[in-house]
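quick one, 421 residues, struct below
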Amino acid sequence: MFATYRPILSLLRGTAFLLAASGLHGLLLPLRGQEEGFSTASLGLLGTAWAGGFVAGCFFAPRLVRKVGHVRAFGAFAATGAIIALLTGLMINAPVWILLRAGTGFTMAGAFMVIESWLNERATNENRGTVFGLYMMVTYASIMAGQMIVAVGDVTQASLFMVAGIFFCCSLIPTAISAAATPKPLQDVSLDLKGLYTNSPVSSVGCLLIGVANGAWGTLGAVYGARIGISTAEIALMMSLVVVAGAAMQMPVGRLSDKTDRRYVLAGASLGSALFALLIFLATPRTAVFVIAMTAAYGALAYTLYSLAVAHANDHAKPEDFVKVSGGLLLLYGFGTMIGPVLGAVLMGSLRPESLFLATACAHAGLAAYTVVRVSKRAPVPVEDRDAFKSLPAERAVTPEALRLDPRGEELDPSGEEQGG
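---
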């Protein structure tokens, strides 16, 4: 059994280093930028640039991979990530960081697509669920581990940038020495907005709004923590627990949605997220324990919404369209994460640090209201005709290639041919 999973475990080790580097670098930049006196707008644009680069990478990276091969392409992506991490430590300048952050987004999308396609190639129909579950565990654990490294370092020094660069380089080793066969060429990514909206208006609008909220929080949550005066270690814990709480709640919330109209659960979780956000805005907590507890409660609801929206869309789609529909929703989510940091930065710059939660509350309240309206416009899919809810990996580490690894995507590939092991 171990021999069966050995090549996969090697690839997952590379994934772990890549995600740890991403988590560390992504949290370090806004904290160091805050220390350097960067404007709120500049800090918000770091998130917008990353999201824009990531979406562009999903479209254009497959062409590079087809041209030079998986191993060389991954080596280029990981090396570029290391170079960018080191450059951000050498050049403390907001416009330079914004430009480099877009490059990081592009390279991370390409690197993830290579690893995910490799995992997909190594998985069989019998162990695909296990491989997908392992991938989910690695994504959440590695992102949290990378963020927590910030807690034991000094954000005002260059050492953490060096550690991020080292992690990017470490991610190269498992793929460079792997004896696994090179996967099939990556497939081009496309976006059919009209088809997505026709299939599920709630999911299409929802993924865009969820991206707005998560993009605002993911980029500026650390800035919020720094401005209200909690320590770097407490900020790292806060950012990690928000994602972990959402991951832990996915299955309970998802199982509830299996028993009723998913739109009720989606609307309820959206409304709950908005209420927690408004409570933080109005209560203006300053004690670290209170802040961490309230943001974790917020994350427990907010970070279940994307998986619920994807599950609802796939209730209405044919099984063979899972990859196409889910991939399109992922790109809509990516567009939302480009908008959210700008909106959050405008509100934080105009009002007070807690105004970040006004941005997320607006997005979540809008989703709840639109979902309630749509309930009266379309009958729910009968429970017996739906697939059971399944969790998804952290959206920050998912590309359309990961969706082909999902057991729901194993039946047919986009060309309509049955997939093998």
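The first helix runs from residue 2 to 35.
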